[in-house]
Design goal:
The complex is a heterodimer of chains A (116) and B (113).
Chain A: E1 5-7, E2 10-13, E3 19-24, E4 31-38, E5 42-50, E6 53-57, E7 64-68, E8 74-78, E9 87-94, E10 106-107, E11 111-115
Parallel strand pairs in A: 2-11
Antiparallel strand pairs in A: 1-3, 3-8, 4-5, 4-9, 5-6, 7-8, 9-10, 9-11
Chain B: E1 3-5, E2 10-14, E3 19-21, E4 24-26, E5 33-39, E6 46-52, E7 59-61, E8 64-69, E9 74-79, E10 88-95, E11 107-112
């Protein structure tokens, strides 16, 4: 089975622009989560989608949004980019996802975003 | 509030040494799962093990072993006979519901030949 794929792998943007990142989960996985990793804040949860519905959201401003399509692929969008948004954005997928299903999540290679 | 603590920032060992990584998870929940992930220099997080909060029995899988001590909320992860390829940052992360992992700050493991 192919793993989680994320595109693009690297991205350079300037302040004020917006960006869209894409994630394709492992085939058959319906839950997709997004995380941000920075040297200062570490790994932080952004949001989780299951069956096209956002079920959980981390403590990020409204500039960060996402969506999930019927084929479980997901996108996240960051509008009005700030320098502090420079980070590695990781996507993870999981096969089953109840409130507390405790399934392991499989991570993609990430998209490294640099905001100048 | 839930809190994940990985007190060890960096550990350096020589190949073939055993190494234990510590993780403390403070929470009011009585049932939860905690995961260990490894992040090599390539950046991709790799799932290692999953452990629940209601089983204190030690478990072993290959060179990895782990145990949970309920009294101290400690999930410790041990690598036996470390190898250079084990060099990475190791994160513990409880699942707090709806696939939300709360990551610790990580422990960087350096294994030298």
């Amino acid at each position: 089975k192919a793993g989680v794929t994320q595109t693009p792998r690297y991205l350079i943007k300037t302040r004020g622009q917006q960006v869209t990142l894409s994630c394709s989960p492992i085939s058959g996985h319906r839950s997709v989560s997004w995380y941000q990793q920075t040297p200062g804040q570490g790994l932080q949860f952004l949001f989780e989608y299951f069956s096209e519905t956002q079920r959980n959201k981390g403590n990020f401003p409204g500039r960060f949004s996402g969506r999930q399509f019927s084929n479980s692929r997901s996108e996240m969008n960051v509008s009005t980019l700030e320098l502090g948004d420079s980070a590695l954005y990781l996507c993870a997928s999981s096969p089953l996802a109840g409130v507390k299903s405790y399934n392991e999540q499989f991570f993609g290679p990430g998209t490294r975003l640099t905001v100048l | 509030a839930q809190k994940v603590t990985q007190a060890q920032t960096e550990i350096s060992v020589v190949e073939k040494e055993d190494v234990t990584l510590d993780c403390v998870y403070e929470t009011r929940d009585t049932t939860y799962y905690l995961f260990w992930y490894k992040q090599p220099p390539s950046g991709e997080l790799v799932f290692l093990i999953r452990r629940n909060s209601f089983d204190e029995q030690n478990e072993i899988s290959g060179r990895y072993s782990w145990n949970f001590q309920k009294s101290t909320s400690s999930f410790n992860f041990t690598i036996t006979a470390s190898q250079v390829v084990d060099s990475a940052v190791y994160f513990c992360a409880p699942d707090t519901g709806f696939q939300k992992l709360v990551f610790g700050t990580g422990t960087r493991l350096l294994v030298s030949p």
